[in-house]
Amino acid sequence: MCTGKCSKCIGITLFPLAVCAIVSNILLYFPNGQVLQVSEITDLVWFFHGILGAGILVILPASMMLGAGGVGRCANRCGMLLSVALAVLGFAGGAYCAVISSLGLFWGPLCDTGDGEYLYPFRNNTLEENYLFNQTTWTICKEPENIILWNTTLSSILLAIGVIEAILCCIQVINGLIGFICGTCMRKRKANISGM
């Protein structure tokens, strides 16, 4: 497979992942579909790991990868080198999303434990005592309803998206370097078309 085609495939794959990350991050602001006060929303949501990290920082390289894979001015060695630089940016965004999502899973959500005060009931737990491995502790959180399931599901989705995006961007770095050093196969296509 030509490096240009590979870039295009990776770019096409990154777009829906970025959109899913943005939607998942936005849903974290509305636990169980409820509109909460700013002070009642889990603090890690404000790091915009799905919107900025796995979203915008990945859409930029995905756009360039589509250009690097097509016919035109981007389908050359300089375009491939630029796609490498942007793929590094995409890797950083995906890794950022994965790290923040992991912390969100480990620390747990902000919730009302029944006394009207919002706090983090699971923040000081060790890995052995973590709420993820003991679902009976989920009843500690009274409001918002099903906050732990909501937070766990969306953070897991964001973690998976961040890891997949980081892997795809690493593949693009390697692919782009090969395209920069060896060429993008565009000359071969043009030679075949003109020789017919």
What is the element string, with H for helices and E for strands? HHHEEHH
Radius of gyration: 21 Å
Number of strands: 2
Give the overall shape: elongated
Keywords for this entry:
two-stranded antiparallel sheet, mainly alpha, elongated, about 200 residues
Could you describe the 3D structure shown?
Helix content is 63%, strand content 2%. Strand 1 and strand 2 (118-119) form a beta hairpin. The chain has a two-stranded antiparallel sheet. By secondary structure, it is mostly helical. The mean pLDDT is 88. The two termini are 22 Å apart. It has five helices and two strands.
How are the SSEs placed, and which strands pair?
Layout: H1 3-28, H2 49-69, H3 77-107, E1 111-112, E2 118-119, H4 147-182, H5 186-195
Antiparallel strand pairs: 1-2
Helix pairs in contact: 1-2, 1-4, 2-3, 2-4, 3-4
Describe the structure concisely:
This protein is an all-alpha fold. It has helices at 3-28, 49-69, 77-107, 147-182, 186-195, and strands at 111-112, 118-119.
